[in-house]
User: What shape does this take?
Amino acid sequence: MTSQVSSPAEHADEADETGETLLGGQRRPAGDKEVRRLDRVIIRFAGDSGDGMQLTGDRFTSETASFGNDLSTLPNFPAEIRAPAGTLPGVSSFQLHFADHDILTPGDAPNVLVAMNPAALKANIGDVPRGGEIIVNTDEFAKRAMAKVGYDASPLEDGSLDGYNVHPVPLTTLTIEALKEFGLSRKEAERSKNMFALGLLSWMYHRPTEGTEKFLRAKFAKKPEIAEANVAAFRAGWNFGETTEDFAVSYEVAPAATAFPTGTYRNISGNLALSYGLVAASQQADLPLYLGSYPITPASDILHELSKHKNFGVRTFQAEDEIAGIGAALGAAFGGSLAVTTTSGPGVALKSETIGLAVSLELPLLIVDIQRGGPSTGLPTKTEQADLLQAMYGRNGEAPVPIVAPKTPADCFDAALEAARIALTYRTPVFLLSDGYLANGSEPWRIPDVDELPDLRVQFASGPNHTTEDGAEVFWPYKRDPQTLARPWALPGTPGLEHRIGGIEKQDGTGNISYDPANHDFMVRVRQAKVDGIEVPDLEVDDPDGARTLVLGWGSTYGPITAAVRRIRKDGGRIAQAHLRHLNPFPRNLGEVLKRYDNVVVPEMNLGQLAGLIRARFLVDAQSYNQVNGMPFKAEQLATVLKEAIND
Assistant: This one.
């Protein structure tokens, strides 16, 4: 998922003088088989969690990105490192939607399902529309394997798949046969069957091949015989598609030549984009980046990625637990670093006391919460948006914290920069609420020029800032900027700037311990006023036709909501759309926007957390539409709900 490409328009097909067509760098003889042009395709790879479906999907995605298609992905895998083989809970899948135009979601239903075993078929067949293509690894359909998932008879023979275009392929047998010359054991050879499947799909959809072969040789550089075996399996899958009579048609999806502005693009996942955003923020702030973290799904990839960037002044600390991770990060903030801690919902609960301490100390700290299904350990590898109220209120006392939420995988980069801007400008901890869908999903991202990035540099306190009644010049750690209400950031060890820190309430100005009731009331209100006064852009509303119904979303619901809105408008319906990036404070014009519409619908992957906040804050009868099944919304599902709201 690291392919870098130029503008997609530069990857249009070319024909040379031999009559052959160059499709994204792959030569295909003209006229050998029928080639049909499609505008978009949704493919789902599915198998055991040990079958390499995530790797297969990643490679197909990388080649699709390098070809210049717009794309969106949805990895879906068990929480266990190695779930029970051949069982429904052990099925791992990877869905990819790619097109010759701009798209917003991984797609509602796959056009093509690659099922590596009976469990993969049974777990996913319900999502495949009639007429869809199903490629089945027939070698795995033994009686025992089928009985394990409840098949009394083979679905390949009992007529239950008659409504689909089924391609029975003995993937395991063909892979073993193709790798005979390598002297591998049967078990070792079988592991390459995912590469055979990848080669077949690459032939079917004219994907480039050079990048995958280069990747395999690099991945297995220390075991060149394994690398060449995987390359051979990949080529065998390609050749099988080219020569077998069962695949009489291949498909072409042209690059998305008009979907993107001109620039240099790469495919990027949400966690990777967020990591790059944090590095960019530290460079723009001219501050070292410090990550204090404890591994937790689905946030761990940020720790893994940032650990690779010591050359940018990044220091990563894998702590013994969540509390130690945020404690170290807060210490780094006190020491003058751009400090970050990453976690998911269960970790936020453990970090809550230290977040409250950061509120009291008024130091910049980024708390990155990659939300997942809960409560407790919940569904570690599934997505949810159910930490909003925890981020808003999940601390003792009045401890307000700004909240920023990205809307797409690529937008995680910009959201990280925005969270850093708020934290550094206002001297406050900031929540960045992503989720598993954004973290693991991917899409094309235009790499920005450095001069497009915001200037985040800050001024540290350098000397006394207050004159006492007796004329002495002293340093007051809680003397505030009149515009932002931010207190000065004083680096420890700076002569004359010594001051007290701790969790006990502080006296206004001096920072000394204070139990005075009036002072506590004042400090609580000032901390709230600081957050309320954060400058955020007004909410933009997409309403081309003067609609009566507004759909309001936040976070990762952006893609499904926008796709649903497009469907409704294409059918002649009138609907407005707005999406919140800033959840605390809300944009100043949010109340005025909400009151312009007769109906407000708020789709969320929780039981109505934003809707409840909207109703309480603005006294608007917002309609909540909720889903908590661990999966993102489907566009058709939302379109149906929104049509009903329009007709009310």
User: Anything to note?
Assistant: Residues 330 and 365 are 7 Å apart (CA to CA).
